[in-house]
């Protein structure tokens, strides 16, 4: 079979002075940063849906994407060809992982049985390509939002038959993820929410979602799948309000339904923006509960109010992400997953490479900057000093849960007032951060 990207060589590291757009300027997979290589730190993953299935259409026009390997059909044979094209891309890019929805890799059939058969036929090719290239599956998932049956939700649908169909679809997607050696499985509640509360029993819907996920946990144990379960927060789109609206909402839900021991979060930058948060905030919320598992690497346009899923090129963003990841000890099963799409005007196959190279370089720079910041220690020392008053004997008792209001009153009354506050030095710290950039 002739190559799908005949004019693109395997992408190499050319160094910061390289002027070749098909070389990495900062991502050197074998370069050691701290105690790991860049490849081990970053665990880059390419998504199947945006990269190989997105036609680059929008509400105002048809798709523009040129994908020469496509024959325009929804056949299994076309899906198998697409899989081979995808793995040539992964291999030439040097991405060690990929991620997919079930309906990305194989067309939906006329019924559940036919859909399962279609998926099996393409999984056979995926397995062959994984063995040929060494590329691994970061995580799999089921598309429970595109088909009209899911117009009211899947696990939260008022239609019990839809709930049952979704369960069967997830069951199969979990089996396939296990067969392909996936390191995780993601639940994204694309339509698990509401458009209006006038027709919604919110408590009952969220209860059903909790039961659905408990059944998934049970089946995970039954089939011996040892990968990580992830939930991916997003506040809106396509619903007005999604039940997994941000990291804090997800953690509250998981605790309420006794699911936290079984799940971690997969956080996406653009979803954080839509929720009114910075990505660093969402990561710190998840890390504080020991629940950060993986990240979707993209960004949004702050002048546009929807999920634009652009490739990350902001070095401040990537450095902040990598500070959080390095401080928590790095990934175990997750990775930096490029849930991003090229712009509608970037329609050629070459643009897929250029976009991913830029994102990988941005995260490589972020990794180097984050490591330098943490090694230098000035930020950590400033924060430590800022909270130094808590290191007194009574402060430690408060933190340990061994003090009362009466103890605090007895401590502060002789002082007459609280000690004078120290400056937060925000501008100085922002200037210091700029020094590393």
TrEMBL record:
EC class (word): isomerase
This enzyme's EC code(s): 5.3.1.5
Source organism phylogeny: Bacteria, Pseudomonadati, Planctomycetota, Planctomycetia, Isosphaerales
Obligatory cofactor(s): Mg(2+)
Major localization listed first in the record, in broad terms: cytoplasm
UniProt name for this protein: Xylose isomerase
Family: Belongs to the xylose isomerase family.
Cofactor binding annotation: Binds 2 magnesium ions per subunit.
Classification via SUPFAM superfamilies: Xylose isomerase-like
Swiss-Prot/TrEMBL keywords: Carbohydrate metabolism, Cytoplasm, Isomerase, Magnesium, Metal-binding, Xylose metabolism
Keyword Metal-binding listed: yes
Residues at which Mg(2+) 1 binds: 232, 268, 296, 339
Organism of origin: Paludisphaera mucosa
Localization of this protein: Cytoplasm
